[in-house]
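We close this part of the discussion by returning to an individual protein. Part of our work consisted of pairing the sequence of a single chain with a tokenised description of its backbone. The amino acid sequence and the backbone structure tokens for this protein are reproduced below.
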Amino acid sequence: MEIEKKIDPIELFNQWFAEAKEKEIRDPNAMLLATVSKNGTPSLRAVLLKDIINTSFVFFTNYESRKSRELLDTGKAALCFYWKSLNRQVRLVGNVKKVSPEVSDNYFVTRSRESRIGAWASKQSKPLKNKDILLKKVKELEKEFEQDIPRPEFWGGFALTPNEFEFWQDSDFRLHDRFVLKPIKNSNYWESERLYP
């Protein structure tokens, strides 16, 4: 694999993502989200990419969760896509901020009724004595929201704007192809640099 010296990494990502959508068995939009606390403790979990808006990678969550607290505290995160069916990986590092309420509202209404109820019912990352408590809350909310289900204020989206990409392609004998891309000042292009595997 060769990558041009000047390239648009979003365009390359979209090419790889399109192939992953065809070949990855399940959740090609799954990505690992790495955050760090104020005291430097890292944390990692899988979330789903829901959109790319103006070169920013958008996902949604409970704003009171651990990941949200860490994102709001630091404003930074890393993402990693790994598509085993393609033997490819894309890593991104960048700055994170909340998306507008309108973007969150527009996505929320596309979710199934059950998922919208679930967003209300879950006190994400808080201790739960037993699952029956959660299921009881779901039943209560199903009665409360017989018609419209508004988006909770504590739930919405984040957008990561990358300032670094790494594209990784598996190769024989662990002689993988690795390219890091960083933006060129005053340009729409990014400069690539090959790394040892």
Notes: The two ends are 13 Å apart (CA to CA). The chain is about 30% helix and 35% strand.
